[in-house]
Amino acid sequence: MTSDETLLAASGLRKSYGANTVLEGVDFTLRPGEVHALVGENGAGKSTLARILAGLARPDAGAMTFEGKPFAPRSRHEAERLGVRMVMQELNVIGTLTVAENVFIDQMPHRFGWIDVRRMNEEARALLAQLGLGDLDPSRPVGTLGIGHQQMVEIAAGLSRRGRVWILDEPTAALTDPEAEKLFAQVKLLQQEGVGILYISHRLEEIRRLSDRITVLRDGRRVATHRTSEVTLDQMIREMVGRELGESLSRGAAAPGAPALSVEGLCRGEAVRDVSFEAFHGEILGFAGLMGSGRTETMRAVFGADRADRGAVYLRGSAQPARIRSPRDAVRQGLALLTEDRKGQGLLQSLSIRANTTLARMGDVARKGGWISSAAEQEVAERFVRTLGIRCTSAEQPVGQLSGGNQQKVVIAKWLYRDCDVLIFDEPTRGIDVGAKFEIYRLLADLAAGGKAVIVVSSDLKELMILCDRIAVMSACRLAAIFGRGEWSQDKIMKAALSGYLGPSAKGAVN
Amino acid sequence: MKKARLGALGDYLGMLAALAVLLTVFGVAAPHFFSGATFRTIANQSPYAVTLAVGMTYILIIREIDLSVGSVLALSHAVFGVCLVDFKWPLPSAVLACVATGMLCGLLNGLITIKWSLPSFITTLGMLEMARGATYLVTASRTKYLGDAVEGIGEASVLGLRISFLAAAALVVAGQLVLTRTVWGRYMVAIGTNEEAVRLSGIDPRPMKLAVFVICGALAALAAVDVSSQLGSVDPNLGSGFELGAIAAVVIGGTSLLGGRGSVLNSFFGVLIIAVLGFGLVQVGANEPTKRLITGAVIVAAVILDHYRTRLGKASS
């Protein structure tokens, strides 16, 4: 059914956010009746490309055509009017409205302004039946459904509208296998109607089954476009990770330290499944994995920010499991968690560097009765501003005014002052520009050299390979592998990261 | 550091300037406005409002609200009267019972809000009704004459200023010092700014939030002692709308309803501004409706001004 004519074409698309370039001249074509898959590592630019095509973002440079005519949608609405539609990765349904109301949110059948509920429910039922959800009551509030069903409702909402091009961004992320099967059947149906489908997923097995062509993106560039029948899984993985490694950080040979933290059989709901690992004093242990592979959830459970269902945490080689039921317990026992969301969870944005630095250890800058000694507090804050090289007008500056890199340094200062010796960093350089990144790397290396146990969760594989002594890889909420320096390669790590998402048939292709 | 202190002083200067402008306007408009009697009257009728404003400032700083202070004041006031008159308790015991009542109400507000993560708007709205109902029960919905049992508190004065006013002023100073100079005050500001960040810093915010609710209830009860002594009787309808007056004063003082920012001293000036406005408008012959129209407009205007002041502050630093 695939013809050689072009439905949607983009050439030379560029996009950057601030200093961060996400797309660097990407070409892309979509034919009628084709499923074209987009693959790449986290941050390769897949979602940005999709968002540009769907009118959610505008390119800095480059041109697009749709059905032979120039195409430059200024909004999602405009793109949809022309026939380009996107089903988002995040759920976009309104929980308090019914299934039918969500499906027909902007086109409810009505007479003189009164919604024709019966007709709306009937039409919704017919649509849902196409997706194999005929038994779903259209008058049920969406919020009462499971996540998978909510996603199906969103997909049904999309299908109720005419579209020539469909963009599906990780559509199966929250679906169970039977639900995904129903979705695939629907995709085939759309294909037969001549609709072009851009399909984004990190489930390579799914892509091999469904797609006609595959485009690999890496660091905002298009590496290759293949016919699905002509490419192997190994080749795709190689293209996704690339070969060359960027700058390196000279780190002295790590002295093997004593065990600082050991985690055994940690479980939390669906997000963390039987995770065990050890971290040593003086080393940097990295955690790689795809988004949603359970890395952040694991660290939050170790830290007591979320309660683990099962499993034990041992500190400093103790045979007794540590009792960590809240962040307070964790901090008292020398653990620190530096969250990815510095603004929402790490810092008091409107307060000064001084107040943020001393927050976790106020007792030491106060006299009896809890009176804060301004002089002592000032001295502490200025010491860290100096030693960590925090660029600011003074220690009195509100941290909200600092750059991302300097904000991260303030968070580090807080935990150094608290004297924690196991530091868990979640995405320590996210939102930080390249120059400041290396300063943070240097700082992390210094921490390890000073005997701290440093754990780094990062979606940037190169970052981990520069920094870490060992890299643990998580996949589908389990620990898939741990590699030592010298044992790893980008291919091996990527394979491990994908391993939990591959069906049994694909395993042979990887190994 | 110098800069920070100057900035803080600047905050007070703004409020003092607003107060000075009001005084000048009324001084010109009403010939007998400027007199010792005027200032004594304003000062002597404000202690309860100041006391409520201190508690409300703390509550707003931790990003909560307490709508029940008016009713809690009434209930504590009723308990106070019953203990004095019906049980014939000595004054100190009655005061203790009164304060205990306020603290208990605050404790309930806090426990329920924290335990079930409810918006305190709802919890304290419930308490507003419940405490009022309890007040009617305790007093059998009747006014009770207190007589000479409370005279001691009402009469004592220094230079014509009631002891209660001096106590309230001392409370303001202490409240401001605790807020700005102690670990506890820092935690309150931090909790109001970002409670999750505080929790992840290894500090349990719950006991501190609970304490603030209890303090707010205790201060409502202390305000009740003052009001009782002034009235000389127990009135089961006392205090309705006091919570809104307290919130108005605190907001005029620049404390944010979004938490994390506030000043007890400025709330004190907020109370004085509302009092001067009320007294002055009566002096120039305004009637009650006009008085309320203008007071309402001043509250909104003050918050708009504060909006620009903080934006300016952000832009300049």
Task: Please state the structural category of chain A.
Answer: alpha/beta
Roughly what percent helix of chain A? 25-40%
Amino- and carboxy-terminal Cα gap of chain A: 33 Å
| Structure summary, number of beta strands of chain B | 4
Structural class of chain B: mainly alpha
- Shape estimate of chain B: globular
- Order the strands across the largest sheet of chain B as they lie in space: 1-4
- Report low-confidence residues of chain B grouped into runs of 5 or more: 1-7
Helix tally of chain B? Answer: 14
Oligomer: heterodimer
What's the gyration radius of chain A in Å? 25 Å
- The total beta strand count of chain A reads 21
Description:
- The complex is a heterodimer of chains A (511) and B (317).
- Helices cover 34% and strands 24% of the residues of chain A.
- Chain A has helices spanning 46-53, 76-82, 99-103, 117-130, 147-159, 177-192, 204-210, 233-241, 295-303, 327-332, 342-346, 353-358, 374-387, 404-417, 434-449, 461-467, 490-499, 504-510, and strands at residues 8-17, 20-30, 35-39, 61-66, 69-70, 84-87, 110-111, 114-115, 165-169, 196-200, 213-218, 221-227, 259-268, 272-280, 284-289, 310-315, 335-338, 422-426, 453-457, 470-475, 478-484.
- Chain A has a 6-stranded mixed beta sheet with strand order 6-9-10-3-11-12, with helices on both faces. Chain A has a 6-stranded mixed beta sheet with strand order 17-18-19-15-20-21, with helices on both faces. Chain A has a 4-stranded antiparallel beta sheet with strand order 2-1-4-5, covered by helices on one side.
- The longest helix of chain A has 16 residues, at 177-192.
- Chain A is globular.
- Mean pLDDT of chain A is 84; it is low at 504-511.
- Chain B is mainly alpha-helical and 317 residues long.
- In chain B, 77% of the residues lie in helices and 3% in strands.
- In chain B, strands 1-4 form a two-stranded antiparallel ribbon. A two-stranded antiparallel ribbon of chain B has the order 2-3.
- Chain B is globular.
- Chains A and B meet through helix 10 and helix 11 of A and helix 9 and helix 10 of B.
